[in-house]
């Protein structure tokens, strides 16, 4: 059904015109955006100003809401109309003025396949300047997307200095903000703080690898800190691969306003008459059942609407990097492929070091940008490796870093103008011995696309592409953009990247793409829309990964989280861990291997084979089921625990990790979530260390009520030990 609202009159096109043949004026001052359990409601006041009046639990009726005085400021606050708080919009108009005063003009709503789309049209009081607010409400998932477009018909160009995607208001006694921070090899760490009066911002100004230090995601608890299974919480994330900014302002009326969008830092953006500026989408959900339900809402929504092939089971990968690094030849790789095949791996991925002839890629100092197969390392080319990999029963994947270039490369020598640079003959700033190509330039976009396109055309049986990016924008300057549009670079780089993603998605719908950026530098829903998974961190130490994966899966689904078993001692931390512990932690996402399997001892190889077979048996529950967080690694008891439950609740997986010493008589009590109440489940320990009994219920039939309300004791005394249980419904 479609509604069109103009001048405060509501017209039900499909029903009233076609059936009754007349128009019925209705009260159009309330705009209700809703899902099955959530409501976001706006009110148009008598002065035609738009205000948010509610976001939270769904209101079955809005009767009387029109009479309430709005608590919040304007729904999309602009600078110059008396607004004293943070604003969503600042524009310098063609006449040089900075005042923008937006009024409601009309709105439309449609409902198709469980998705309600709302467009609210705002326009300036005195100028031909227009802002459209868009909302998509996903009924079943209780998720809303919000974004904005800005355009004008003024005589000359308008400069935008602030251009947020959305503004949301909250009213509570107190606010507790959970957000994510980190660094390379320590991404998605969690911190929670009570917001005080003032403005708390989460932002990045890095341009590329924008989520490595901060992530554009949050959980805001209302009135008190939310628990996993209780309390009010709003969770959200900005879908944008460039600089972002989330601002939370608590004012003297105990209101909290959140404004989210592209970071305007050094990014003033000029739009010509009739040119449309579109912001990225803010994705958010509300739960009054705690943080875990908010996570489930986002996970389920992502798998259906914002993750490539979110309904398809992911294969087990062996990546060559930590097993070979740059030092390999065809013989070395074939030995790895032999052992990978014997373990049950499904895709072999050749990582960095396979390209460059004039400047061979034998380390990070040369060759990047020269995407020819290194003839010395691989005399039979990529095709020879694909043939051998497929002969062994696996598919083949490859690593690329198409946005980057080493100064020591044919590309840098021939196309210097394609490189982002500071100009005025200033010395280039290098990271990892490399520079960054200028994706604001359509020619560079074509080059980056063609890097991957040519590889896949020459080798059409490649099944998997790992896309890496290992530096930020430091040398700020574009030889492509005009002098008066240099501040567009941050934004146009992200747009250029998305253009390449879109083209690859269209032309290679059956290839698997992984997003990597020095680990977790592109863990966000903008990139995830065009990729199947992300690499959450270069830190593969399983102890560290418990924390990284715990934070990551607050917002992003496990099916998209690449989790690899690597060498011990770990190459990042030097920590030694058992093969069982490494596998048990890696089971929590898309399982992969990143070591040299031909160097494993027979005992370890046999364990790996059994573990991989076990993962294949349970991966549909892990990848397609719902995740429940049970015991936080951030708590003082030295445990972490999670469980997964299949959609039909016939199967569940429990994972428990000990990362501290526990006394001889101390045992961990774990209560599960999400099981079918009243059902009986048979318990099986998998990835079991022979001769070690960690539970007393292995092979027993246990009521779900026992698991949920009583819990089971787990005998994990030593640090860096773990347990995985499979539960199968028997009645």
Keywords summarizing the entry:
eight-stranded parallel sheet; alpha+beta; 39 strands; globular; 20% helix; twelve-stranded antiparallel sheet; 731 residues
Termini separation: 43 Å
Radius of gyration, Cα only, in angstroms? 27 Å
Number of helices: 13
**Which parts are unreliable, with pLDDT below 50 for 5 consecutive residues or more?**
5-28
Please identify the structural class as seen in this structure.
alpha+beta
Strand content: 25-35%
- The oligomeric status of these chains comes to single chain
Average pLDDT over all residues: 94
Count of strand segments? 39
Largest sheet: 12 strands, antiparallel
- Tell me the overall shape: globular
Helix content: 10-25%
What does this protein look like?
There is one protein chain. The chain has 731 residues and is an alpha+beta fold. Helix content is 20%, strand content 32%. It is built from 13 helices and 39 strands. Strands 1, 2, 7, 8, 9, 10, 12, 13, 15, 16, 20 and 21 form a twelve-stranded antiparallel β-sheet that branches. An eight-stranded parallel β-sheet has the order 29-28-27-24-23-22-31-30. Strands 6, 11, 14, 17, 18 and 19 form a six-stranded antiparallel β-sheet that branches. Helix 7 runs parallel beside helix 8 and helix 10 (542-552) packs parallel to helix 11 (579-586). The longest helix is centred in the C-terminal third of the chain and has 23 residues, at 602-624. The radius of gyration is 27 Å and the shape is globular. The chain starts with a strand and ends with a strand.
What is the secondary structure topology, with strand pairs?
Elements lengths: L1 E5 L2 E4 H8 L9 E5 L3 E7 L5 E8 L31 E4 L9 E11 L2 E10 L4 E10 L4 E10 L5 E14 L3 E7 L7 E6 L3 E6 L10 E9 L9 E8 L4 E7 L4 E8 L6 E3 L5 E2 L2 E7 L3 H16 L10 E3 L1 H4 L5 H14 L3 E4 L30 H11 L3 E6 L3 E2 L4 H5 L20 E2 L5 H17 L3 E6 L21 H19 L4 E4 L9 H4 L4 E2 L7 H11 L9 E5 L12 H8 L3 E5 L7 H23 L1 E6 L7 E7 L5 E8 L9 E3 L9 E7 L14 E3 H7 L1 E3 L6 E9 L2
Parallel strand pairs: 22-23, 22-31, 23-24, 24-27, 27-28, 28-29, 30-31
Antiparallel strand pairs: 1-2, 1-7, 3-4, 4-5, 6-11, 7-8, 8-9, 9-10, 10-20, 10-21, 11-18, 11-19, 12-13, 12-15, 14-17, 15-16, 16-21, 17-18, 25-26, 32-33, 33-34, 34-39, 35-38, 36-37, 36-39
Helix pairs in contact: 7-8, 10-11
